[in-house]
Amino acid sequence: MMASPWLDVLDDTIRACAAHEREDLAERLRIRRTQLVEPKVRVVVLGESSQGKSQLVNGLLNAPVCAVGDDLTTTAPAVIEHAEAPVATLVTGDDGVRAIESADRTPAPIESVTAKANADANAVRAEIGLPRELLATGLALIDTPPIGAPAARHTRNALSVLPQADAALLVSDATRELSPTELDLLTRVTQLCPTVVVVLTKIDLVPGWRQVAERNRAHLARGGLPATVLPVSASLRLAAARTKDSSLNEESGFGALVRHLHRDIAGHADQLRRRSVAALTQMTVDQLLGPLRERLAEARAGDTDELTARYQAAGRRLEELQRESARWQTLLSDEVADLMADLDFDLRDRTRRILREVDEYFEVADPAKDWEVFGEWLRANLTTVAETNSNWLLDRFEWIARKIARQVAPRRPGALPEGWLGSTPLDHVGDLRMPNVERFGVGQKLFVGMRGSYSGLLMFGLATTLAGMPLINPISIGAGAAFGAKSVFEERGNRLKRRQSAGRTAAHRYVDDFFLTYGKESKDTVRMIHRELRDRCTAVAHELRSEITESAKHIKQVIDADTAERTTRARELSRGIDELAHLRKRGQALAASGAVRGLTA
Amino acid sequence: MNLPELTWSLLGRALEAYADSPQATAWLRRHLARFHDPVRLAVVGPRRSGKSTMIDAIAGERLTTPGTSSPEMTWYHVPQSRSQPELMLIDTPAVDGETEPRVVEGICMEADAVLYLMRQPHDDDLAFLRAVQDHPVARAAPVNSLAVLSRADELGGGRVDALISARQIARRHRRDAGLSGLCQDLLPVAGLVASAARTLREEEFAALGALAAQPKRELEPLLLSADRFAAAGERAELLSRFGLFGIRLATTLIRQGASGQPALAAQLLQRSGMAELRDAIAQYFTDRRDVLKARSALIGLEVVLRMEPRPAAAGLVAELERTLAGAHDFRELRLLAALRTGRARLPEELSEEAFRLVGGHGTGATERLGMQAPEPHLRQEAISVLRRWQEYAENPLLGAAERRAAAVVIRSCEALATS
Lengths: 601, 419
Description:
The structure holds 2 protein chains of 2 kinds. Chain A is α/β, with parallel strands linked by helices. Helix content of chain A is 66%, strand content 9%. Chain A is rod-shaped. By secondary structure, chain B is of the alpha/beta class. Chain B folds into 3 domains: 3-190 and 275-325, Rossmann fold; 193-271, no CATH class; 346-418, no CATH class. In chain B, a hairpin with an 8-residue loop joins strand 2 and strand 3 (87-91). The mean pLDDT of chain B is 86.
């Protein structure tokens, strides 16, 4: 046997399937290849129910080998081949294609083998060997169950036979034209097996079969289906066989059908194969091409939209950060200025209130006696002022820090840690020294009393001398004592006033000192914290910026790498597609080379 | 009140409730007017299923032009005759997978009953029958359709015994769950022969007689194929009227002794399955005209209530549901079909009695009870029958289908006893 071009194409197709990781397709093609290499020509008889498929097979063989009936009869395929002596086998197994290898084969009587196969739910097929001239050239007829509801077992059985067909006879009876479902079936069949003959059966039954045949031819032409229409009547054929009437046989149309099978189908096995392989190749290549094209389109369209979007978002985020950094710096200095003013006012207000109290206090109190208590009180008050004020400062700064943090890094709540401001309440309250207070001792009192009593004694003594009394008399002595006591009293009051005023002055100076030192200290703290805060925020903003820049860079790299990879993939895919398209063209060329007369009606 | 009366009053109340809606009023009035029309029987089927032939066969005259099809529905009025009550036949456009839903809906709305023609029993295309029952009221009562194997002769390849084979096929398929839920029965009819038999002319009988008189040796080759038979011009006309099966059958019948045109016509009707179909049409459809009319009207009413819901009609919705749930007539019809097709199996004598009691031989009290007697006696009889069936229904050996059947019979007996 010379090397056939179709075998090369088929092998290339199988290789292509393997290359594109479609082992399933490759496996199917390999099975088909072994069948194609055999010299046998398989002709499948198929059609809808009650069209006379089995009767057609019987007519062709001139023997009632296939069971026929008025209702649905055939449920399992029957394969009829040439044999020297009649022989029949029933093949059973589980449902499915795999069962073919593991099937049980039991010999059966030839008259009832198909009936048995039809009755057996596990029957895979019936195999019949007959000594017939028609089959001697290697022709095998396959009778199939009707094709109907897609889910039915008989439909599945019928369709499972189809892939091994070299030629198909679609049986449709003459009582009506080809139905849309039959035309649909034909289209599907021609994809797998391009050599199809439409056999119009039961032409004995209706007078108008010629019109039906004409209309069927028109339907086929319209559908672009290259199928011959051959009208036959099995009952005329059987009657002819009974009466040995050759003209009746010719009338039955079987003569023409047998000639067609002999000449155009069995006689052109190579052409049939070429067309089968062409159809197979095209179908397989189309199956491979579909996903390939999709992937190519996908690769070309690119799936970096999301990445690009992220890249652009990063760019936008950077700009935003730039804008925000200006904004938060202004915000920070504004807030700090406010804070300073507030703190200053607060401090001033509190110290003034203390001073007012000091003044009131010294209206009555004597510093000489109460200085200790006063000193305690004043120190305690000033400490409180300092603490309150500095706490307030810290609180305000915490608050500012949070506010700024929200501005600087809104998506990072921990960017500025809480409680980072060291709370350092310094001792701003110095020692309060006692003002210099002159003591009003007993000697001084004696001296002041003597000085006062002297003038009283003298005044009353002189007056009483006029009355003839001595200068020193009880009256003058009494007046002298009274005057002396008064002087002592007055002196004591004056001294108290002087002491109080000195106390006030000392307290004022003291508070002033406190105000000055604490105010300075507080302002320094504010400035320090301000700087600290600013530095921290700048660091965070910088960190953020560099992070985003980094990620944008990364995204850019990914996009670039992806694009490069896609370009290579697209190149590979289009190369694959080109190869497959070439294969497909070779398949088409196979089908076109030497079209056989009669096969393309 | 029985179902037709209930329906009538429901329609009347609906008219009041929808007095302000001209569309609903017109629609309801049409349904009221339909109530007194004869049964509208639509003949439906895919292309070339023999619809026109079937219409001719039922009407008994050549009403249609063969080979033509109209995209619209065609109405034929068939007046009452000896063999058949008055009917309104509707010829419909071909119905298959590509038919517009509008056409199917139109048929469903216009027809009271449907004959669905099929070429083969396992035609997968039961979509139309499903569409017919695709309505809340219709689902509650799938009693208005019959499936017909309209080209039964072709199933048997035109052999003389083709109808016997077709009957077996029909028997196998009529209990099919898919089909029995959708129609009452499946009947085989050789449509062409039936229509020819209904319109058999004297000269045709003569021509057939002459054929039958030929020696078998000469006739048989002629009858081998339509081509051979039609070779002579005058026989072509005969072939187009009878078909090869009809001619084979007619010549055989004449040889077997059918003498005279009426005898041959009667035999042909019998052998074509047409007689059975006519009985079925009478039993399921024309005898139950009121029930079918009520069914159509209820469907019409349901459409109005659904399309234009309003508070005033709320009571009517409930009433409609109650009427449907209590419609014993529908159940009687379903049981009739179940008994005829063997879906419900009662012992033979009981089956016959049940068939009679649910109105298989006529819906009057005398036909149901099968006795001619004055009213009080009829009632007595009804009560005794009721007792017997009540006892029977308690038999623990009964299956679910039989128990349901017995319950329907009891209900019919109660109606007889209290009427």
